[in-house]
Amino acid sequence: MTNNFPLEICVLGCGTSTGVPVIGCTCPVCNSNNPKNKRDRSSIMITSARGERIVIDTGPEFRLQMIREKVLDINAVIYSHTHADHTRGFDDLRAFNFKSKKPISCYVPIEHLEELKHNFSYAFEETDYIGSKMLIESKTLTKGTFKINDLQFDSIIMPHGNTTSRAYKIGHFVYATDFKTFPEKAKKKWKGSIDVMIASGVYFSSLPTHSSIQETLELFKELEVKKGIITHLSHRVDYDRDSSLLPENIVFAYDGMKFKVT
Prior knowledge:
Blueprint: E1 7-13, E2 43-47, E3 53-56, H1 62-68, E4 76-78, H2 84-87, H3 94-100, E5 104-109, H4 113-119, E6 136-141, E7 144-148, E8 151-160, E9 163-170, E10 173-176, H5 184-190, E11 196-200, H6 213-223, E12 227-231, H7 239-243, E13 250-252, E14 258-261
Parallel strand pairs: 3-4, 4-5, 5-6, 10-11, 11-12, 12-13
Antiparallel strand pairs: 1-2, 1-14, 2-3, 7-8, 8-9, 9-10
């Protein structure tokens, strides 16, 4: 596994389900000229030292994100859950099929597999359609660890309103989005072993289905995270104004942000 490190992490998008700017909104953040206040729907890309690329979630801007980052191929997709802002770029995976002529491995939590199949049934069922059919190799994720080639991941299930989302840990890096609370068992399991963690925190006020920024800051502290990055940000968060409210080892994510983890 060490031959795959360091990993490069790219934040493809760091916005909430509406993205930023929000349609029809004239607030200061939506009208901001700061590129760090322009937020696609949340997802990341992991690139190993060997050049393997793994995407977590394919939001509505997935095509544009791949073009922006000049990505020519990917090796796999992992889904956190099946809400629209994390899956609606699924069909754009076809473009990688055009070049490779091979199926793309899609790792889907077992608790969300049927919904993904329902939403994109044409990709999973045999039909009489004669156009370009998606080439997908569905991989069902149960609890715990799994491997993509030589890269080992651990996963935990988090509550997210009336559904759940998965957090993923690879080496000393964690990506956790769309959760209200973090399970106590997972805290004990991962505490003290995280160098960098990207976690959602929509804004400073409390929310019924998502962790707030304050709650995410507390989670970073409980897990003893060395560097925390807050994603899934709404238009209530101004990058420059609100960055001053964060501890020294915590920052806001922004689209196109890149860093390496060892």
